[in-house]
Design brief:
The protein is α+β, with helices and mostly antiparallel strands. It folds into two domains: about 190 residues, Bira Bifunctional Protein, Domain 2 (BirA Bifunctional Protein, domain 2, 2-Layer Sandwich), CATH 3.30.930.10; about 45 residues, SH3 type barrels, CATH 2.30.30. About 25% of the residues lie in helices and about 35% in strands. Helix 2 packs across helix 4 and helix 2 packs across helix 5. The longest helix has 20 residues. The termini are far apart. Bound molecules: biotin (BTN). Biotin binds next to helix 1, strand 3, strand 6 and strand 7. Pfam families: BPL_LplA_LipB.
Length: about 240
Amino acid sequence: MNIIKLNAIDSTNSYIKENAVKNNFESFTVVLAEKQTSGRGQLGTVWESEQGKNLTFSILIKFLDFKITQQFYLSMAVSLAVLVVLKKQFEATFYIKWPNDILADKDKVAGILIENSIVGNFIKNSVIGIGLNVNQTNFSKEIEHVTSLKNISSVEIDKEKLLIDVVNSIEYFVEFIYRKEFLKLKEMYMNTLYKYKIPAMFVDKNNTVFMGKIVNISVEGQLVIELENEKTRKFNLKEIKFASR
Ligand code: BTN
């Protein structure tokens, strides 16, 4: 495993994007930072993480034959990879919250940011950024519903070992993509999906609150919700949120 360890960097995702081609990084190169000065989250958010306490890292994965239309399977593979490691080692109920947040019970313990470089209809280089809350125990009051593995287990966790376990697990789940076993990935993902088939309140982009239940994920990775009138609607990430936990 090729791990580049940095003390401080703006963002490990940005570091790989800026250096991978120039420095000919091999597939599965891992970049780990003790501190990110501009850690990035989904939808342009900031990823905050106390220096030295957590895992903030990115992995470069190169593909030869991975169609853009199949890109959500990578999100499935990576979130499953993280979830499976946590499930084996910690006592909590872990879920994947669509599209790829990892929850411990109802609180977020890890987030994933995938950035792809595309040539024609294919994904060539994928940068998988993972922020996993490990040994941080205090979070700013503005960030709600967040936890860490130490908060769950009450013990200090060996970050290095956990990193290796997660990277190995990502290699294992990415193999499903190489073998084009997409349906297997989807089945495993759906089995761990937060609030799957359970009535829940959602808020759409117009701030309308409505009841519905998640019944599927479309091929494009959209959330498919069955409304109370039994019609289904598909939503992109920007278009929907849970109204409550
Ligand atoms: C999210 O849930 O919003 C995704 C968070 C992803 C954070 C990680 S930390 C390592 C990598 N570098 C970044 O700038 N972001 C990702």
